[in-house]
Design a protein that fits this description.
The structure holds 3 protein chains of 3 kinds. Chain B is mainly alpha-helical. Chain B has 8 helices and no strands. Classes of the chains: A mainly alpha, B mainly alpha, C mainly alpha.
């Protein structure tokens, strides 16, 4: 395995981007984008996480096998989230959760 | 455990041993993704059901402390990456320095977390008996700005107007808050233990361009813990901040 | 062109069982040898099999009469719960992977050990610690929530010892994760020269697929049970509707692991069968790539079907339809395997050795179990038979008829390799038939009972169901004999059995090219693989001359 050494310059650049991302996500949270607040927050977080994986964790320079392992973890997480939410989002009795409490209390 | 690049019996070459260790850590991180994934799913389902109470809960968190911790943790990731680099290029002294810096930053993070937990305790925001989302605004302390408290009181009352069960649903938010940040902190503590072990090794000058697998794989773990926080910060601290 | 192997009279001079690392017990408790760890697992899963078996016997005795013959209703709830927990989490899930996978994967791929031997030992200790927690729960009030731990029963209302049990299963999950991790990394990085991916034995492919499920599913059930445990201990509300939580969320998270967990149980058994069938049909396996691929396909598709356990919970109809459709898809790779095994048998030169009888029994029972699974995947029909004995019969056909048959078959197949000795031939063939008959008599009546409407987990039933229940209980006593027989003669053979030699069947795998029992390092020199899998023709070393009648396996004391 020929080891790839990432130069400190790249690390510093990534670090600066991550800091900028943190600032941006805080700024965005104080703006009212309606439904898109959460989308923007998650998008920024995902970009930050991707940078950490690619450079700090050297995934960009790792063997294909390692990259496959990473893709698998994201894929299975997506299966779990999407199929479960597919149930919640297509229920006819919406707000079931909210009403359950009120029923109990009444 | 003081073996400098020793070849373990089950392997044929050092290279195979190194590859195996790295792959093992990556596969372990996959399990960690799914482990935290279950919590994130629970969070998503509950937040979409009780967005008002979750917003109110999130607004009780101290964004300054949370933001500070985010910066600290990302910095510790940088120092960890630099520790790996130092080992790769053979700067033995720098390895120790960067590892100690990482451990220091990790400890600061945990310290701030303790302060935050203590605040929640004082404000009656620990799920269970005595949990009350109104408590804070109704019991201002001497150091609180009366104006801010008045605004906060208004906000809380608005929340209760929308969702009369805010106390029940706020408890869900805080149950998830403590479960997620608690589990994250537990991972930090494990990581700190690993760092202490690495620092000991680095004092003995064990990590060289030929042999730095332990630094590398502990680094992978540390960065993963950082990634979890990158998601936890906006999801827990930044809900409905714009109101 | 070659001579049959000369009969061996003595065990090899030095092997993993007599190689000493320290004194006595210490050499076992501190071993990092995958073969010794496998035997540690063999002993500990047998303990849990006994516990689960005793509980099952009590259930069947209780159900002899409509009113219940043995215990109070509360105790009955505890019986079936503890039976499920012991059997599923502490016997079936670790059984084949942790015993045979541990023992055989390094041997089969030509490695000296697993990639992480110390982690391997650690995972056994984790298993033991988790097991102690669960036994503590059994001994101090028992457990009455059902093995599924549905909330809020488990987190609020149950008065039994739920917390230690949940913690025990949580801890045990890490044993499973570490085993899966070890296997995946080992299969990737430790293969001998020439052992390409498509020369791997199908047993190894099956374990690769199993390990995928272990590392991707187990963490989810771990966090779920942790949350349920926290909910119980600190009165939190994650899954408790009275506090705003959602019990269906618990079921989603629970079944995200626990449905694929069925494939943790059955895939390794399929791997065992894929080894036994070509060996005793003396033919290369039919459709190697398809069997290997179908293992991976089962592991992947198995993750897309979990909510078929929840058709009657109030989940969305659209989601239920989707999950119903996806559940049917699992039938495709499963059928691919069954057809390939039967095609392997076609025109094979079949010898009726004990492992083969177990393997054929497996195919029959698995087909019934699999086809009735389709009934349950069908959204409309499942409303009728949900939570009836039909479900109980179906999953016992898969887990006992499938997984345990595979386990016992594997035990007979590799016993000569593990101990170096053979067991009595006639007695073992008789035991296999007893097991098959006993099993069918126990569980086939339950299909009818379920279809007629007898619900599962009830301590009582209407008088008209008594005949079928008595049949089932009678079958259970035959089944018990079917398990006790192998236990006794296998134990006997450890001391008195005939010496097996390297390759008694003969089979083609790399594990048969070393001593029985193998050396601690497995091979004297790292083997180089130059042949294709299950190739009997180009293997003069097996002593099978082409065109001549095959020698009967050197088995038997009778």
């Amino acid at each position: 395995m020929s080891e790839h050494i990432v130069s400190p310059k790249i690390y510093l650049a990534i670090f600066t981007t991550l800091m900028a991302g943190t600032g941006m996500t805080v700024w965005a949270a104080f703006q009212n984008f309606g439904k898109f607040n959460i989308v923007i927050a998650l998008a920024i977080a995902t970009i930050k996480a991707t940078l950490v994986v690619l450079y700090f964790m050297h995934a960009r320079y790792s063997p294909k096998r390692t990259q496959l392992v990473i893709v698998c973890s994201v894929f299975w997480l997506a299966i779990m989230l999407s199929l479960t939410l597919a149930d919640y989002n297509t229920r006819r009795h919406e707000g079931r959760l909210a009403s359950a409490t009120t029923c109990y209390r009444a | 455990m003081h073996r400098t690049g020793r070849l373990y019996g089950q392997f044929e070459t050092l290279e195979q041993q190194k590859e195996t260790a790295a792959l093992g850590m990556w596969v372990f991180l996959v399990t960690e993704v799914l482990f935290f994934g279950g919590l994130f799913l629970a969070y998503t389902v509950n937040r979409s059901a009780f967005s008002t109470a979750f917003g109110a809960g999130s607004n009780t968190l101290d964004i300054k402390l949370g933001g500070f911790n985010t910066v600290v943790l990302i910095m510790s990731s940088l120092t960890m990456a630099m520790a790996v680099w130092s080992a790769q290029v053979g700067k033995k002294k720098l390895v120790s320095i960067f590892l100690i810096a990482t451990l220091g930053l990790g400890t600061i993070f945990l310290g701030v977390k303790v302060i935050e937990y203590k605040q929640k305790f004082d404000h009656h925001l620990i799920p269970g008996l005595g949990f009350d989302m109104r408590y804070r605004s109704e019991h201002p302390t001497a150091t609180d700005d009366p104006k801010e408290m008045a605004i906060e009181k208004e906000e809380v009352e608005k929340t209760f107007a929308v969702d009369p069960d805010t106390n029940a649903h706020g408890q869900l938010y805080f149950s998830l808050y403590f479960a997620m940040t608690g589990l994250h902190a537990l991972h930090m503590i494990v990581g700190a233990g690993l760092l202490v072990w690495l620092i000991k090794g680095s004092f003995a000058g064990r990590f060289t361009p030929q042999y730095n697998t332990p630094v590398e794989i502990v680094g992978l773990y540390w960065h993963f813990v950082d990634i979890v926080w990158i998601y936890l910060f906006p999801l827990l601290y930044l809900i409905d901040r714009h109101r | 062109m070659s001579t049959p192997p000369t009969p061996v009279r003595e065990l090899p001079h030095k092997h993993y069982l007599n190689a000493t690392y320290g004194a006595g017990l210490r050499s076992w408790l501190l071993t990092t040898d995958h073969k010794r760890i496998a035997l540690l697992y063999l002993a500990s899963v047998t303990v849990f099999f006994f516990i689960g078996g005793v509980l099952a016997t009590m259930i069947r005795i209780h159900l002899l009469t409509p009113g219940g013959a043995l215990v109070t209703p509360e105790t009955y709830n505890k019986l079936f719960t503890m039976h499920g927990v012991a059997m599923i989490f502490f016997f079936l899930i670790p059984s084949i992977p942790a015993v045979f996978g541990n023992f055989l994967i390094p041997l089969m791929i030509g490695a000296k050990d697993l990639a992480f031997p110390k982690i391997n030992l650690l995972s056994w200790y984790i298993y033991v610690i988790g097991g102690c927690f669960v036994l503590y729960s059994f001994g101090t009030g028992g457990l009455d929530t059902g093995w599924t731990f549905y909330t809020p029963l488990s987190s609020v209302y149950s008065n039994s010892a739920v917390t230690p049990a949940v913690l025990g299963i949580f801890i045990n999950g890490f044993s499973s994760i570490l085993t899966g991790l070890n296997f995946i990394v080992t299969i990737h990085t430790m293969r001998a020269p020439g052992m390409t991916w498509f020369r791997l034995p199908l047993f190894v492919w099956a374990h690769y697929a199993t390990s995928l499920v272990m590392i991707l599913g187990t963490p989810v059930v771990a966090i779920t049970l942790l949350l349920a445990g926290l909910e119980r201990m600190f009165h939190l509300g994650f899954f408790n509707p009275a506090l705003g939580g959602d019990p269906i969320l618990f079921q989603h998270l629970f079944w995200f692991y626990s449905h694929p967990a069925v494939y943790i149980m059955i895939l390794p058994a399929m791997g065992v069968i894929s080894e036994i069938i070509p060996t005793f049909a003396r033919k290369p396996i039919f459709g190697y790539a398809f069997i290997a691929g179908s293992s991976i396909a089962i592991a992947v598709i198995g993750f897309l079907v979990w909510a078929h356990h929840m058709f009657v919970t109030g989940e969305s109809t659209y989601a239920a339809l989707t999950f119903s459709f996806l559940s049917y898809l699992v039938a495709i790779p499963s059928a691919v395997k069954v057809f390939n095994w039967t095609s392997t048998l076609y025109k094979g030169s079949i010898s009726w050795d004990p492992p083969m009888i177990y393997a054929l029994g497996f195919i029959g029972l698995f087909v019934i179990g699999g086809l009735t699974g389709l009934f349950l995947a069908c959204l409309g029909l499942d409303i009728h038979i949900h939570d009836t004995y039909f479900v109980v019969a179906h999953f016992h056909y898969i887990m006992v008829g499938g997984a345990v048959m595979g386990y016992v078959g594997g035990l007979h197949f590799w016993w000569p390799k593990i101990t170096g000795r053979l067991y009595p031939r006639a007695l073992s063939r008789f035991a296999a038939v007893v097991l098959f008959i006993g099993f069918n008599l126990t569980f086939f009546p339950q299909f009818i009972l379920g279809y007629l409407g007898m619900p599962r987990r009830y301590h009582t039933y209407p008088p008209e169901f008594q005949v079928l229940n008595v049949l089932s209980t009678a079958g259970a006593s035959i089944l018990a004999l079917g398990y006790l027989l192998p236990m006794s003669y296998l134990t006997w053979s450890m001391r008195y059995g005939r010496v097996a030699g390297q390759n008694p069947w003969p089979a083609t795998g790399l594990e048969w090219k070393t001593d029985s029992p193998p050396l601690t390092e497995n091979f004297e020199v790292t083997p180089v693989v130059t042949w294709e899998p299950y190739d009997f023709k180009n293997r003069p070393d097996l002593g099978l001359a082409t065109g001549t009648p095959l020698p009967a396996p050197a088995l038997g004391d009778d």
